[in-house]
Amino acid sequence: MSSIACCSGSVDKGTPLGTIETIAGHSVYIGSPVPADQRNLVIIATDVFGYTLPNVRLIADKFASKGYFCVVPDLFKGSEPPADLMDDLEALSAKGSGIRAKMTGVGRLLWHFPGFILRNNDKMGMDIIEAVVADLRATRGVQKIALQGYCWGGNIGIKLAQKDGVLDVASVAHPGGNLAIPQDFDKVVKPIYVALAETDNQINASQCELIKASLEKRSKELGIMQKVEWFLGVEHGFAVRGKESDSHVNSQRERAFEDALAFIQKALSL
């Protein structure tokens, strides 16, 4: 997994409107507005910046505005890197950036990211999501479950889509590079939407074709919905941390959300 790719991007300017609750012993952001009918749940599995990042909370609010009960569990318990690390990595890669800025970026990356990797793994995130889902089924009357996963959380979504009894549909954007391709996709048993970035050293073009072939085969074998989209002119992380100020990146980010929403709506209506 490339730590620079996983930690680059920008922080959104909007103000999240939701609340924090404790569910199954875990802190969870609840997207606003909360619908009166909470039978359809979207649970968001975050990238490495976790559930406190404004970007992911604003996405939760967008799902909530579409009528979904949307929650974002804290998967990392404070071990996630700080959001301003993105600024240092922007300076690290910027043309004309001075040696001091570059040293600061490298130093902060080395300070935060290895510890994060040591403290977290996919299984831990899967356990938290399964616990939150079980609690919400029991206490809120949730019936159908969609997962939206980004980067690190995309891996979690793919692996939960290999299981029965947790999700009804998974949507993942630019999952991380520690997946087994195509083997992890060969095991998928639930409808799945996959949004991939053109410039992504986590998953390259040839691997994208392997993913498409794998999911097309699963669709024929099991009759499940599947869709893989290739987003041009964007990088890893674009669907959650893409720059709002870049018109092309922002438009692709918006399309990724709308396409994921449409896929989820169709899958949950079946």
Automatic annotation (TrEMBL):
The organism's place on the tree of life at top rank: Eukaryota
What is the name attached to this protein's record?
Dienelactone hydrolase domain-containing protein
Residue stretches making up the Dienelactone hydrolase domain: 28-267
UniProt-recorded Gene Ontology molecular function terms: hydrolase activity
Q: Which residues form the signal peptide?
A: none
Membrane-spanning residues: none
* InterPro entries in the cross-refs: AB_hydrolase_fold (IPR029058), Dienelactn_hydro (IPR002925)
